[in-house]
Amino acid sequence: MRIVKILLFLLTIGQAAFATDIALAKILTSLSANQKTLLYQYGTLNTWATPVEADSFWRQHQSELGNISPDDGKLLGSELLANTELVYAMKTPSRLQALRGVFTASRLLLGLAGLVGAFALLQLFGRYIPGVWRRLVLYFSPLFRRLFSPRMLSWEMLAVSLAAVYFGVMIPDVVLRTVVIQIGLVTIWTQLTAILTRQHHVKEYSSIIKDSFDDYYPAGRTFIHVSVPAILTSLVVLWVMRVCPDVWYRYEVMVPVMIGIFALPPLRHMESVLSRLIFPFPDHRIRVKDRRLAAYAVISLGVWMVLLQVILPESLLMLSVFLTGLCLLLSIADITRGGIKNYWWMQALTLLFLCAEVLEGSKLGMLWVAWTGLGGILIFVFIKYWELPVMLGWSWKNKRAWGALGMALLIWGIAVLIRARPEWFAIFPG
Predict the structure, then answer these.
(1) What is the DSSP code string of 175-210?
(2) How far apart are CA 350 and CA 71, in angstroms?
(3) Contact indicator for 301, 323 with CB cutoff of 8 Å
(4) Are 296 and 262 in contact (CB under 8 A)?
């Protein structure tokens, strides 16, 4: 009996503390910018000045802080002091502020110019190189027949692109560095594919890659045609990540990595088995491409769980976005058409994964991963809002305006629930 009383006492204390936190959170939300500034200054004085100075400051500004008690003011001031990042903001126009804005905008424009320039140059290469190539062969065919045959040209372009990536990381200008490295990475991937497929024109080896994913070629050839170029390109991107300060390569690396993994022979042979985790109930309406998407989802989930242990935030976020979209896609009945049992099973799996994203993102402090999960849950709710009535025999024909009004009420209800029961959503560690 004594143990029960102790447990009840501890639970009561915990609930009281949480109720206090909720009250303080509501006060903090309702504060004006000026009140937050005063509480921040009060928290600073409580931490670094004497109690006399802090009390004097409180008495001087108590009328501006409303009904906040000194004890609550200390807690709120400490919270603001610990979790506020000071940002330089312009209150009055100045030459220094204007120049700062100019340099910030110019840096963003330089990065954008690099990405757009890389895309444009790739398009121009694809458009004009074939014509230039034909002219050179016409006039210098005896020499070019040996030095610039399609096969030799692929090796030469591969060597040039490797040199571009190796020396490109040393370029100080962010625009030129981004253009050189991006073009180099794309060229490395395409020329490795051309060499290994022995087809040196884009249309030819593109069709081979497409046929490889459609089971036209055996798993061994698919590994050579798809996995090997993707894996080797991934190694180059990993090297760039290690020596280059630009952060976007940490996102890009997941593209060749996942393509290389999808085409591995053991996983290709196991696609039917892996897809049963998504579609466990047999149904003749399940198409081959749906089973393949289901297998890719299972493989991606395995990689996602590995990344949780390695903790690569950018790569984990990229894969989380991909998996969220894939799960939401597979959860739509009109897309998969795998039977009612598989449909409900997929709904449960989708919700389970989205909740896992939220929990793991909050646990590891990766807010973007958690927000991806929360965004996925909201999209899932909206999809089911339109889909479930149709499955039950309801038709939205000529009723879409009423449906949109109902969705507005649904969004409003979610917002009210979050404000009324914040403890249900307080998942981030304090």
Answers:
(1) HHHHHHHHHHHHHHHHHHHHHHHT--SHHHHHHHHH
(2) 45
(3) yes
(4) yes
Which residue shows structure tokens 């798993």? 219
- For residue range 252-294, what is the model confidence (pLDDT) as tens digits? 888 888 888 888 888 888 888 888 888 888 877 788 888 888 8
Structure tokens at 170: 């040393």
Please give the single-letter amino acid code of residue 425. Answer: F
Q: Residue 204 has which token pair?
A: 């030819």
Whole-model pTM?
0.64
Could you tell me which residues come within 8 angstroms of residue 384 by beta carbon, excluding any fewer than 6 positions away? 347
Burial environment of residue 78 by CB neighbours within 10 A (0 to 12, 13 to 18, 19 or more)? middle
Quote the tokens at residue 152. Answer: 């030799």
Q: Please give the C-alpha separations between residue 48 and each of 54, 78, 179, 427, in angstroms, as whole numbers.
A: 9, 11, 49, 32
- Rounded to a whole number of angstroms, the distance between the first and last alpha carbons of the chain is 33
Please report which helix (H) or strand (E) contains residue 106, including its range.
helix 95-139
Nearest-CA neighbor of 411 among 377, 373, 378? 378
The reported pLDDT for the residue numbered 227 is 87
DSSP label of 276? T
d(CA 421, CA 417): 6
Q: Could you count the other beta carbons within 10 Å of the beta carbon of residue 318? A: 20
Q: What is the dihedral of CA 399, 404, 407, 413, to 10 degrees?
A: -110
CB-based contacts of 150: which residues, under 8 Å, 6+ apart?
A: 200, 201
